[in-house]
Amino acid sequence: RATMKSLRFISAEAFVSNAEFARKSLSSVAHNLFPLLFKASYLLEQGEVLHDLVENWPLVDFNMGKLLGTTVDYQEDLSHRTCSVCLESCLTGLRDYVLNHPSPYVKRLKVVDLTGIKDVEVQFCQCKKTMGRWARTQLLSKLCLELLLYLQQTQCNPGAFGISIDVLIDLFVTERSYDLVVQALLKKCYCPLKICCVSFRSDNLALQKFFYIIKLTDPSLLRKLEIVHNVRLEMEHLEILFNSIHFPLLMSLTLPARTFNVRRFTDADERMLTSIGEKMGEMTQLTELSMSFSVLTGRIRKLLSPLKTPLKMLDVSNCSLNHADMAYLANSFHASHLEVLDLSGHNIPDLYPSTFFKLLSHSSSVLRSLTLEDCNIQDTHVNMLILGLSPCQKLQEFKFLGNPLSSQALKRLFTFLCELPMLKNVEFPVPRDCYPIGITYPIDDASLSRFDYQKYESVAEELNLILLQANRKDVKASTPLFGSYDAAVQETNNELGAYLINSFKETIEKFTTSLSKMS
Predict the structure, then answer these.
(1) Residue 12 covered by a domain
(2) What is the pLDDT of residues 461-476, one digit of tens each?
(3) Which residues form a coiled coil (predicted)?
């Protein structure tokens, strides 16, 4: 359905659609019309006009999320359009804002906020080329260094050095972009454009480099920290990180796989875990925590009980939780605040069904997203699952890939899911009866795509028909075989692949050397 546009917005589109005329006329445009013209230009992908609007921005702040979000004149939210043409035009326009004005006293811009840009899987821009978080980090760092070099080498207006603009951004750094971003952060105090890191993600980065760059980001301002793929952070490194750096505003923390492994715990490790829990307790803003693929058996209480603020998001997927861990979660003060919960990789029906449903009951009034992938949920558990989910009237997303459910069980479950009024996204497994007889769960990657595609398509069609007949066209149902879309991984998958190949090669070389020594 087309979104309604006001006459003002239609006029703005007409104005910016003639780029040459619009660029010449900007000097006579009223300042309060700049946001309107910006959104119209972004929608039409008028890169040159966007550049000139930013270069001549007359207001004190420039907030991408607000400018592209729902507005009175055009309600469609464009903040999920990470159009390369548009974003590059905005950032180069920002650089030229500093350089090209002869009269710096009319410059009012103080804050540029780029954090409202959302990276999504499906793009609607005409150019079909996106600029993800990694590329935005790269381009802003490059422009800051170019700007500094230009100001130092040329006899430009000395007033340019008096300009100071905070640029709020979600930084994403890998080995490939590390040197460039470090240089930009090191020279931040000299540059008119000040990179202010609100959230930081690192993948494929040596531990030493991570420790160095995180200190340069000004951790006192950091709200979100994601240490994800191929950063070999273990528990002792995490303790050093928390002891040497304070994160007073940190709201969200994601730790890499295998940060914790209680199977090989010593007394010293127990003390270390207690210390980490206490340090997290000092982060009074912390409400989101992801610790997937660690071994945390029997230690959830020790980690989470020191927290003074209830968690709204918790990801403990594949963390080998036992009954005591689940009992702590169900009875803790976190339970009634959990909006996002991921318990994938735990055999819920066999290990702790009643405790899990107690947790679900306590969080039901606020729960928005629930992920139960590879949890051994079978046909016999569907009625119990429906009972547990019934109070979760605010549930928007339910993911349960990798569970051994038949086509009939899925139809029964979908009939119930139609009754959840806020539901928007469902990720369901390939039905068990689409796989060869005797398939074992969890299914390994090699066997994952060996199913009867024709039968699956037929079942998927029936499930969508159930949604349609219940007038639930608003619900998207899909089976992403190899997991949900991750914009960051998608953008850097070539580098991630190369890193994994090198790691494998190093392991083989070490193994070969060891064999040679033995023989």
Answers:
(1) yes
(2) 999 999 999 999 999 9
(3) none
* DSSP 3-state of 143: helix
Q: Is the peptide bond before 35 cis (omega within 30 degrees of 0)?
A: no
Q: How confident is the model at residue 507 (pLDDT cuts 50, 70, 90)?
A: low
Cα torsion through 118, 123, 127, 128, rounded to 10: 120
Give me the residue label for tokens 């992920």. Answer: 371
434-446: pLDDT as tens digits: 999 999 999 998 8
pLDDT of residue 516: 62
Q: Using CA atoms, how far apart are residues 247 and 225, in angstroms rounded to an integer?
A: 10
C-alpha torsion 298→302→303→304, nearest 10 = 100
Q: Rounded to an integer, what is the distance from CA 486 to the centroid of its chain?
A: 7
Instruction: Name the H helices within 342-476.
Output: 348-351, 353-363, 382-389, 407-417, 445-448, 453-469
- Asked whether residue 442 is assigned to any structural domain, the reply reads no
**Distance separating alpha carbons of residues 432 and 406, to the nearest angstrom:** 5
Sign of CA dihedral 351, 354, 357, 358: negative
Using the predicted structure, report yes or no on whether residue 103 has a pLDDT greater than 60.
Answer: no
Does residue 117 surpass a pLDDT of 90? yes
Side chain identity, residue 315: D
State the Cα–Cα distance between residues 185 and 197, nearest whole angstrom. Answer: 10
The count of structural domains within the chain is 1
**Closest listed residue to residue 336, CA positions, set 354, 315, 311:** 311
Residue type, 66: K
CA-to-CA distance for 125 and 119, rounded, in angstroms? 13
Element holding 182 (H helix, E strand):
helix 178-186
Q: How far apart are CA 427 and CA 157, in angstroms?
A: 57
CA angle centred on 416, ends 379 and 329, rounded to 5°: 75
261-280, pLDDT tens digit by residue? 988 888 999 999 999 999 99
Residues 173 and 197: beta-carbon distance below 8 Å: no
Looking at the whole model, is its pTM more than 0.85? Answer: yes
Query: What does the alpha-carbon distance between residue 395 and residue 22 come to, in Å, rounded to a whole number?
Result: 46
Cα–Cα distance for residue pair 385/192, rounded to 1 Å: 56
Residue 33 per-residue DSSP state: G
Q: Taking a C-beta distance cutoff of 8 angstroms, is the pair 253, 307 a contact? A: no
Question: Cβ of 122: how many Cβ atoms within 10 Å?
Answer: 6
Q: Which domain holds residue 127?
A: 7-131
Residue 223 included in any domain? no
What is the token pair recorded at 323?
A: 């009954």
- The Cα-based distances of 423 to 92, 163, 337, 445 in angstroms read 40, 47, 19, 29
Whether the CB-CB separation of 352 and 380 falls below 8 Å is answered with: no
Tokens of 72: 């009175």
Residue 396 near residue 424, CB atoms below 8 Å: yes
Whether residue 51 lies inside any domain: the answer is: yes
Q: Which residues pair with 171 in a beta bridge?
A: 200
